[in-house]
Design brief:
Shape: globular
Oligomer: single chain
Helix content: 25-40%
Largest sheet: 8 strands, parallel
Number of strands: 21
Radius of gyration: 27 Å
Strand content: 5-15%
Strand order of the largest sheet: 18-15-12-9-8-21-20-19
Length: 710
Amino acid sequence: MGLARLAELYGVATAYAPSPTEEVRVPDATVVAVLAALGVDASTPAAVRAATEAAEREAAARLLPPTVVRWADEPRPAWEAALPSGTRLTLALEDGGARQLTVPDGGGSADLPLGVHRLTALAPDGRTAAATLVVAPPRAPQPGARTYGFLVQLYSLLSSRSWGMGDLGDLAELASWAGRSLGAGFVQINPLHAAVPGRPTDPSPYRPSSRRFPDPVHLRIEDVPEYAYVTGPDRARLDALIPRAAALRAAVLDEGALIDRDAVWELKREALEILCAEDLGPGRQAEYGDFLADRGDALDDHATWCALAEVHGTSRAEWPEPLRDPRSPQTAAARDRLAARVEFHRRAAWLTDEQLGRASRAARDAGMGVGIVHDLAVGVHPDGADTWAQRDVFAEGISVGAPPDAFNSLGQDWGLPPWRPDALAASGYAAYRGLLRGLLRHAGALRIDHVMGLFRLWWIPEATGGGSDPTRGTYVRYDADAMLAVLVLEARRAGAVVVGEDLGTVEPGVREELARRGILGTSVLWFERHWDEEGQPPLEPGEWRSGCVATATTHDLPATAARLTGEHVALRHRLGLLSRPLAEEQAEDRAEVGAWLRELTRLGLLRDTAAGGPGDGDEEEEIRAVHRFLLSTPARMVGIWLPDAVGDRRPQNLPGTWDQYPNWRLPVADAAGRPMTLEQLAASPRLRRLMEGVLPLGPARTAPPAAHSA
């Protein structure tokens, strides 16, 4: 009971339920290690007793927790009701104003403006406390009207102007075309976070160095304003990069090469070295000054880390000890010594931010009601810029993942250090607020990867001797009320929709709480079934929730063509990923697909033929029927995986693989596997045929021009 009580006080689970009928005890060693990462000594029974007594004394004496929440639509919050009568509250509002209240005084804190304020309390017995007060609106903004849009991994969408991978210029073009020609309301893309540099760079957009700043590899170099003013030898150097960029593009589009992020960055870095050395005009200098002032110390830290990584590499264990501390005198001296490189990385961040803004404006100008949907990865690399600059809020020696379940008996280790819930609360969620504010600068909506992490995360302690075992982890709980309040508040300030990726195992009550706060979920066709009924029949369209983005697939799942034909099973078999005999997997897959095709036929969305049954094997017609089904649900947003529109069969990422499959490095291709440019995709007859059934959902538009090429 001693260790269990201490763990409970710190939100650390000592048991978890992988299913409604099963409970698994967490090993004591795991609990002790997780508590240690939270700064709590539980190594001996005496230490457990002392830590428990100290925590209970602190809780009993405390007037206020470090951060408190007031939802604008709710009655007096529990923290306020718990204060002794006569407690005097002084509020320093974020706009510089102040309020004086006495508990209870009738209204309490109910009429406070939205924002993050500072609250101090003085009880009649002389006790005092200070806390951050988050006053949040009831719900996040909602889409203005029911809409549809495209989902795509930006790097995979090359145009005739790309330098070997899709860029922010391509994003602006895609948004403008999709909005103006097809009435699309949004484009959802992968995270554009800054990657950990190196060769080879980890191509996954979900394990970045920093989530606070975008990666300049996404820049369209020719769209940088200073590009037009380069002269002399520098102009010759710039011009010499163009054929090299064309060769990279041709290798991917014409020769079957994989997208080589490192080669692309090598060229763009050469170009940026020239562009960032150009003097800025007075107006541009003023704009840059505003950006520096807005991003402040966070940008300085990020740029400093980038400069240090160029000198010392990205493995922090190999850095000189003093430089591992971002606030050490030696780090300050290194920042001065590397001032030119720090300035280069600041300027690159600004230029990337500018083009993000340009893509967002292109989407809005094209009539998109939502616009660009950006993606927030669940965490960052343990040796990256964020963990260096904000090391006090990350748990050392811990990795985030998932426990064993029916689909993965070994569990998952994502290699991402978690935020410490206690450190977040103590700082008023400053790191979290800053992260959201930066991401929402140019977002019409924000997708939160593994949104369940706002409630709890699976912490995996590093094993003695290195490495970790996902089966020997445990859940650590976060203050979901505060996490949601900050998220909803920042979304409201930005006027942005919030989408939560809530696939997989979800704790009871989580989806309901997210929906109550206006956070849309993610519903994938193949998973929307009556799982508790015999045969697990598909949900009727009217049984789908309205508060979601409805899709046929995602970047981690098979393309719809591969799902319908069974090619995804054959791929996993070739790579040795099946846990059962091939024939058994194929039979189950055929049964599942057949059930969906029969349902689509029953609903009149897919023709029936006497010869071949539902769809008669017409792949295009079946894919159109799938999307007709999605449109017949009440989902507020319907997402079309852009590769599906041209018959691409390959997943962008195949979970469970590393070097066995080219994850995150494939261009969008047609049904025959031929890479397609953005221009070819926009002119594709197959895409046009699919979209003819989708256009009525959007506002009235002029029909797109007839296609000229496949």
